[in-house]
Amino acid sequence: MKIRSMATGIVAALALGGATLGASSVALANPEDGVAAWKAFIAQNGEGNGRSKFVDALGSPEALAIAKRWSALRGYDAPGLLAGANLPPELKPGTVINASNVDAEWLKPYILPALAERFKDSGWFGWKQAVIVPTASYYMPKGTLEQTEAAKGVAFNATPDGNLLMPDGSFALSTQGAMPFLNPKNGLEATWSFVAHGIANDNLNFHPITMDVCNSSGSLERQYKAELWWQKMHGRKDVAPFGDIGGMDGVVEGGAVYFTDPRDVRGLSGVRKRYADAKKEDDFKVFVPTLKRTRILSATDGQDPLAAGLELIWDDWRAYWVKTDPGRFDYKIVGEGWTLGFPQTGHFYQAAQRDGSCAVDTVELELRPVIILEITDKTGKYIYSKRRFYLDKEFYYPVANEFYDARGNLMRVWYDSRDWTPRTGQAQWRQVALWNVISKRITWLEMESRWENLETNPTPSLFDIDQLRDYK
Amino acid sequence: MKLWNILLTTTILGGAAAGTLAGMAEGFDNVSVGGRVKQGVAFGYSELTDGMLKLAQANYIVETDISWKPSRNIAVTGNFWLRGDWVDSWGADLMGSGIQNPYSYNATEQYGYHMNRKGGGANDPFGNTVDHQNRYLDDFEDEMIRELAVKFTDDYNRYALKVGKFVRGWGQSDGIRLLDVLHAQDLRMKGVLGDSDEIRIPSWMAALDLNFDEIGIAAPFEWLGMTKPGLELIFMPETHHDQFVINNPTPGDTTSGGLYGFPFPYLIDPVSGKGIPYFSAHLSDVTPREFSLTDATLAARFKFQALHGEGTLNAYYGWQELPIVKMRDSTLHVGSATNNADEAILNVPLSQPMLETLVHAPGIGYLDAMRLTSGGLLGTLGSLLGGSGINLYGCATGILPPLCSVTTNFELDYKYRKKLLGATFTRDMVELAFGPKDVAPVFRMEASYEFDKPFNRYRVTTNVGNEAYGSDALISSVDESVTFRDQISVMFGVDYFLWLPFWEGQESSIFTSFQLFNIITEDSKDLMFQSPYAAFGSKVHPVQTYGTFLWWKALDQGRLYLEGLAAYDFQNEGFAYRQRVDFNYFGDNIRPRLELIHYEGKTEQGLFGLYDNADAIEFSLTYQF
């Protein structure tokens, strides 16, 4: 099946819409096309680990309605872009990638070298095979959609001092919930869209998040477990309480974590709140159980791992949680195109099936349209000299991430699969593969997202370190 | 309790409880169970081990913790442990300092004291045998329950109430406690350099947190520039004092705290520089009622944000955790020079005023008589007894060897209220970011004002009208020996995550923390730092300064963990250091640790002087789940 036929004749929609995205063509399609492609894929490749449930949700009337509105608002969608793309015929759903073909010329432009290397290097963090799945349409929640629709024509102002302001001068992300730049024209705007993506939800609850630490020998060295919550404080329209969270004036969002395993870190908990004002650093506190005391951590040092041995640093929560600061960083769009990443199937099944803890047996990969955004450290004082994000053009969240060390060498690579619900557009997370190509260490995250009672859990007390310390 | 008993207890705690509850946990998503078994072996290298590297401690901990979260608003937590040190069962022989040796030159040296069942011998004429008192800290209510509490949290974070037995930490200081006074400390296992979490003694209490912002009464405080105001109220009907054991060789009251036991005090007459032999001490505690509504501890902490930082105002009305020493009556053992009532021909009770008179009487009292004697045998009690009939039994001067001794009853009185006010402030100093990663230091400040803190006097006027000081002042009336002062304490500290410019590939920062403490005591002249340690001028300094430095760093991808803690006592020139090395190479269940604890201090001078002989290096192995 050619990729064009997979997209089921969506070419007709190519010229629709007036939005532009860099140099890409306008590309609207019916979201049903992505659904049809998935159904055809399942018919040929089987049910897998629950593909039909994903596709049923993707094709539900609620999901299609949201997808269409987002598509109209953006001026494009992924199936539409795909239909207009000039892609190699081998890059089609059902194609299996493994060591035998990962170096094929037709594949190279669409797979990051660090990901391709995993299929060739069986000695460390080896990936046996990948199966290409169809390109679906992903979108942010309905509440964000409605606010973005309502904000059409509003001129968001990304200022040189690192603020994102509404026309009245108020801070955009602590007063409303619309996406600021659907078609970002430069790196700063793309970064703000990524930042505004947040968690693609109003609340988040991991019960638990498991963090497997593998060493360069491919052995599971440690396994951390934690409960983790996240909350968007303003512009809430998807999960109650709606509107604003009380007592969080000026705060964009907050994250809280409570470690439960292993025992020697049990009770370690942290709360970090991000202020909208560029001049106001994060409120960052950690409760240390061995001291029975809360310590204020400097918001300027989010460069340390959450816990010993982890590749995950505080600034890498949800892939990127650094305060926007044009004085310290350059933000540039350096390209666009297509790349393979994990599909957002986590609500229904795991995109990646591991072989033990420290290798991958089979992973599904999906071709996604991306903006390539680079954030470069201008000071030489940040742990990463550069971050390169392959920002999904539909979802405003990276399909893939590359983090470079201070010497300019690729250091960490991040791929993830979201626990995304097509019927609402709300997301949490399901899997994160994060590996360090220098130290050859891996942190593999598995999240069990708790959707039940998400409107009342997390409670406000979880973002108060003096209460979180007694969580369990 | 024998070994098999302890194993049985271990099984009960670590096996039955954990196993049963782990089984429950499978059925109840919100129950979690964990625990650990830790065994250490420490080798001392101080005078207690004759200066050699000898077995000194064999600490163990068996611990289980359970939590149950039946709803998002309720958390039930339990933590139980059994600790101890079975070093004497492993054949260790620690030699502590005992009673002054009258046969040493000017009696300035102390007899040895075998702090286990190996008592007796040339250095220990008392021959006491004492079981190691820390072998099983198994009082269930006082020592084995670390936490048993339920916490209720409001949906809107307006209030939270925690009730039960648990621990709350206050303040911003590490190591030296200014405001972290809600709980007394258990110094028996590791002294003051134990984990602060492990040495706090939990109490039955209730803690109510009120969030003024959410309740809707924050406006007045916000008008004053305080945002996010909140109040924590503590009601603690159970009272504990610091737990420690004095290595006391006194027959009939022999106690052994092992490596971290407080030493038996030197008894030196500061006038002559000679020792004061033949005196020993029988100790008893005087405490507030352990559980009382009327004697309860009350405390409150007002929390707020201001000036881009976090502040608290604290108030505490509780009890002193360290004792005031009070001399009571005594017993004269006629016919025993080693304070042994059973060997004595006659045990003569002496009232407190009587002994005070007999010791201090000018010209004829024991002290003056002792001061006139020189050489290798001091301390005849004949002089103080004059021509009484007791001398017939061998207490008279000139009879060799003298056959009398005195055991004095001392009360360790904790029944004094502790009343203090305090404040803390912490701030991320983002304006001062520096270093290779432009990291900002975090500033911490803590201050307290304690009203009427009780002290023993270093210098007293005796009931015969003369002045006594140092060890001599221990023999004095309560009215004369106890006084009160206000005390101000201030701590300034800075935390900094250090990235080194020359360390390429530094994978994580080095956490560093500096603290400087100043403890200012009003009219401190002639106050005793801690009675009965008075021999070498261990007085309260008008301004007592401590500096501390804490650092930690995970190396080798977090598997090799180093932590160092240093403290310096400026006035007494004392120093303490703890170095830990954790070898986290064996998965999540096995935790080996090497720990060095070293003290340098002048004898009985300040806190570190008391621990001068508690140097040790310990290897421990923990299995956790």
Question: Quick gist of this model?
Answer:
Chain A is built from nine helices and 18 strands. Chain A has helices at 3-6, 31-45, 51-58, 61-74, 78-84, 113-120, 142-150, 187-197, 465-468, and strands at 96-97, 127-133, 157-158, 164-165, 203-214, 220-232, 251-261, 269-275, 283-288, 293-296, 329-341, 352-354, 360-377, 386-392, 398-404, 410-420, 427-436, 441-449. In chain A, a hairpin with an 8-residue loop joins β13 (360-377) and β14.
Chart the SSEs and their pairings.
The complex is a heterodimer of chains A (472) and B (625).
Chain A: H1 3-6, H2 31-45, H3 51-58, H4 61-74, H5 78-84, E1 96-97, H6 113-120, E2 127-133, H7 142-150, E3 157-158, E4 164-165, H8 187-197, E5 203-214, E6 220-232, E7 251-261, E8 269-275, E9 283-288, E10 293-296, E11 329-341, E12 352-354, E13 360-377, E14 386-392, E15 398-404, E16 410-420, E17 427-436, E18 441-449, H9 465-468
Parallel strand pairs in A: 2-13
Antiparallel strand pairs in A: 1-2, 3-4, 5-6, 5-18, 6-7, 7-8, 8-9, 9-10, 11-13, 12-13, 13-14, 14-15, 15-16, 16-17, 17-18
Chain B: H1 3-27, E1 31-44, E2 54-57, E3 59-71, E4 74-85, E5 95-100, E6 110-114, H2 140-144, E7 145-153, E8 159-166, H3 196-199, E9 203-211, H4 212-215, H5 219-223, E10 227-236, E11 279-286, E12 297-306, E13 309-319, E14 324-334, E15 346-350, H6 352-360, H7 366-372, H8 382-385, E16 404-413, E17 417-428, E18 442-456, E19 459-461, E20 467-469, H9 478-481, E21 482-498, E22 510-521, E23 543-555, E24 560-569, E25 574-583, E26 590-600, H10 606-610, E27 616-624
Detailed description of the structure:
Chain A folds into 2 domains: about 1-90, no CATH class; about 195-470, Clam (outer membrane lipoprotein receptor (LolB), chain A). Chain A is about 15% helix and about 30% strand. Chain A has 9 helices and 18 strands. Chain A has a 16-stranded mixed β-sheet that branches. Chain A has a two-stranded antiparallel ribbon with strand order 3-4. In chain A, helix 2 packs antiparallel against helix 3 (about 50-60). Chain B has about 625 residues and is mostly beta strands. In chain B, about 10% of the residues lie in helices and about 40% in strands. Chain B is globular and about 75 Å long. Classes of the chains: A alpha+beta (about 475), B mainly beta (about 625).
